[in-house]
Structures are given as C-alpha cells and as structure tokens.
C-alpha cells in the first residue's frame, strides 16, 4: 500500500506549553481553555456551518512531540505504576506506529475574525501548537456506550487533597487573574489534582516539580496530606 499523506486542517493554541503536566486524558480539566485555529483553505465559514449545533466535538490530532520517537509493541502505562508492560494497542500511549490521538472536547464557541475561523474548546489534553487532522461532531446517541468497560481504567483517579498556595503564589494568582481574566488558581488546582508525577516518583514526597502553564512556571510538591504550590514566576525563554 502506498503511504497516505495527511495535511493538518488546524493548530491548537493552549496554555499547555510542554508535555509534562498535561492531563493524561481529555475531559479531566475544563478550567484551562484552548483554541483551534483552522488553516487555509479549511478556515472558512462554510466548512463549519452547522457545527455550532454540537455541544462537543471529536478532534483527530498528531502527537507532534513523538513523531521522531518511534514506537514499541508494548508500553508501560502509568495506571500500572510504570513497571508492567502491555500492548500498545491496549493503551492510549502517544508512542504508536502512527502517532495520532483522538479526543472528545467541549465546543464553547466559534468566532470569525476576517479570514480566520477560531473554535473555542475546553476539556482538551492537547499541547500548544498540536496539528489537528479532522473534526467530527460528537453524537450522544451512538458515541456514548453506557455498557462499555475497561478493566485497566475503570474510573477517574484524582487526588482528593487540599491545595495550599504559598503567600507568593497567592499574590501572583490574584494579580494574574485581575490582569488576564484567567482563573489561574482554579487551573493550577485542577491540573495538580490530576497528579502529573511519574509513577515511580510518587513516593518521593520531598521532590519539587515544575510545570509550564500559559507563560508561567509553577513549582509544586505533593505529600500524603496536601498539594503545595510553592512559587509561580513568569517563564524566561
């Protein structure tokens, strides 16, 4: 069979600037919004006519950070502590023969700016500048399967811990929210309750981590009793 070549129809603009810290599944964090900008010649009013009637859409996208990383028949999913291998097709690992992903997201609005078409979405687990190959409306009567099961991942796993902000982090959030109209504190809480830590590091309570969110660096740690946001600073390129 001849190779099949796909062209991106759009690019994602999101607050997730690096892979570490992005929710591992879609729909876990809605406080961090994103925008899908359609590219020419796909970015026109006719191509999205009627899409406003959908509350949610499917996005078929490229794991752009993994294109040159290759693939393996087996992977170590975080759900199994990062120690046990299972088949790549039994996981949602980005390291696949064809590094494509599929995510359902909420469609919050469509905006037209001259020749630009912008789709505002939430619940996305997509890195900034992710190429998107296709959009399809989510159909509740067929896409939702109430009887579906998967023993490996039967429920959402979120940390039920209080989030404590340092004095510096509190002041930074208040100022940022006032200037940018972004619910920064809620966004940080939602992301950290998803527990971005690698499985093999979850017993290292003293370890300090950092994630990039928007144009910021957020330093944090987790122990048995609480999540601590230690410091928030502008990111320096």
From TrEMBL:
One Pfam family of this chain: TrmO_N
Annotated TsaA-like domain ranges read 6-147
Which Gene3D superfamilies does this chain map to? Answer: YaeB-like
One GO term (biological process): methylation
Return the InterPro entries for the record.
TrmO-like_N, TrmO_C, UPF0066_cons_site, YaeB-like, YaeB-like_sf, YaeB_N_sf
Q: Which UniProt keywords apply?
A: Methyltransferase, S-adenosyl-L-methionine, Transferase
What protein name does the entry list?
A: tRNA-Thr(GGU) m(6)t(6)A37 methyltransferase TsaA
Tell me what organism the protein belongs to.
Marinobacterium aestuarii
């Amino acid at each position: 069979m001849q190779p099949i070549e796909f062209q991106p129809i759009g690019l994602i603009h999101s607050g997730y600037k690096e892979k570490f810290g992005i929710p591992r599944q879609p729909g876990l964090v809605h406080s961090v919004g994103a925008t899908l900008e359609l590219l020419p010649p796909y970015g026109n009013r006719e191509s999205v006519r009627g899409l406003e009637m959908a509350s949610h859409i499917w996005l078929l996208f490229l794991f752009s950070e993994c294109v040159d990383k290759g693939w393996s028949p087996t992977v170590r999913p975080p759900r199994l502590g990062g120690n046990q291998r299972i088949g790549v097709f039994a996981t949602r690992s980005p390291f696949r023969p064809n590094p494509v992903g599929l995510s359902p997201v909420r469609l919050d609005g469509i905006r037209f700016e001259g020749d630009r078409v912008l789709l505002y979405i939430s619940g996305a687990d997509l890195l900034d500048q992710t190429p998107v190959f296709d959009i399809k409306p989510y159909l509740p009567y067929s896409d939702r399967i109430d009887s579906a099961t998967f023993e490996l991942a039967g429920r959402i796993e979120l940390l039920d811990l209080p989030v404590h902000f340092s004095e510096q982090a509190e002041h930074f959030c208040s100022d940022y929210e006032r200037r940018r109209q972004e619910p920064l504190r809620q966004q940080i809480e939602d992301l950290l309750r998803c527990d971005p830590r690698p499985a093999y590091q979850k017993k290292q309570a003293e370890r300090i981590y950092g994630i990039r969110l928007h144009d910021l660096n957020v330093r944090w740690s987790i122990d048995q009793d609480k999540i601590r946001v230690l410091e928030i600073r502008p990111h320096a390129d």
